[in-house]
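Researcher: We plan to redesign the surface later, but first we want a full-length starting point. Tokens attached.
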């Protein structure tokens, strides 16, 4: 069964409060696999008719970190690797999947893929995350003071 994850305020990738957000909605299943179906448009354009590489990198950055957060870990990225296999077309449906692949004493590893409608992998990534609870406690405290 899939459950929808909450929106993240001003997040560049998925925040409903941000008028410039890419606007993704995230779902996670019982196996911890996160998915999203979305369409990019001219606001994310790089080469004519295709997404900017930074847009796909931002999406994978958010997805690979968020799948770790959804598993209950307050982390920050320490390394991201993005591989571009095919250009992402604009105004066509895309599918994203992210999952945790390994956990050790200090690091959590995750991967993500953005696929074309025919399931061809267009962009893939790998992230390494470490616990950073204090980083996010300070942000919450500042937000509560205003």
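Model: Full-length starting sequence:
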């Amino acid at each position: 069964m899939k459950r929808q994850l909450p929106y993240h305020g001003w997040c560049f990738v998925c925040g409903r409060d941000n008028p410039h957000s890419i606007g993704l909605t995230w779902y996670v299943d019982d196996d911890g696999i996160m998915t999203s179906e979305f369409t990019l448009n001219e606001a994310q354009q790089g080469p004519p008719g295709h997404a900017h590489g930074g847009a796909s990198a931002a999406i994978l950055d958010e997805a690979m970190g968020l799948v770790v957060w959804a598993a209950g870990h307050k982390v920050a990225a320490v390394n991201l690797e993005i591989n571009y296999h095919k250009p992402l077309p604009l105004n066509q449906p895309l599918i994203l999947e992210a999952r945790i692949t390994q956990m050790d004493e200090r690091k959590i590893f995750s991967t993500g893929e953005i696929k074309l409608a025919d399931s061809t992998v267009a962009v893939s990534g790998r992230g390494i995350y470490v616990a950073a609870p204090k980083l996010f406690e300070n942000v919450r405290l500042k937000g509560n003071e205003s």
